[in-house]
Amino acid sequence: MFTSLLDDRIRVARGSLAPARAAELMAALLRDTPWLAVRYENDGRPRELPRLTVNYGERSYDYSGLVFTPLPWTPLLAELRALAEAAAETRFNALIVQLYRDGEDGVNWHADDSLGVGRDPIIASLSFGATRKFLVRPKGAAEPCLTLELHAGDLLVMRGDLQHSHQHKVPREPEVKAPRINLTFRTLSGPAPQPAVAHASRVVRWPEDGE
Ligand SMILES: O=C(O)CCC(=O)C(=O)O
User: Fe2OG dioxygenase domain location, by residue (predicted)?
Assistant: First the structure.
């Protein structure tokens, strides 16, 4: 059952996966995902995205000037895609998996409005692990107009003109000590998989050896 927010630009289904199943999936995703730390340069200084990220599906995805070559769907991710497709009533061909290792990781204000997602994209997001805040603000505004807590097993759908009218963010929450994984399913058009920008990223084992 969805709660509809912001004139139906956001729909949230709380507990769309039962707690035990969500915990099982969190453990499997943590263990089996070949996590990538994304390195880039800002003003000539080496930087790293404050989260780990991996792409799956049938289309390359580009952001921050980098092209990410997707891995093929795994049986588990294809199963979750089917769940997201049924809930969002659309088909998805791409997935971004993000690992927020703890509350120091996050994602800053942005909209998912790159050319590949097309006009008014439907994006379905599944959350696992630690509860984190998800903020939404109108473009051009300083303050959020919506603050949600996303829990393990919650499914959120962004739709309509949300990516043109609003931005979203997962803020740092240093008091959160546990990891969170988020899956966002998208429908991309345009170029099929392209060569990876291997130099931009490095694969890390997480937790790293010795932790
Ligand atoms: O982790 C989340 O809930 C949001 C991820 C996100 O902002 C995105 O993939 O664009």
Answer: 91-189
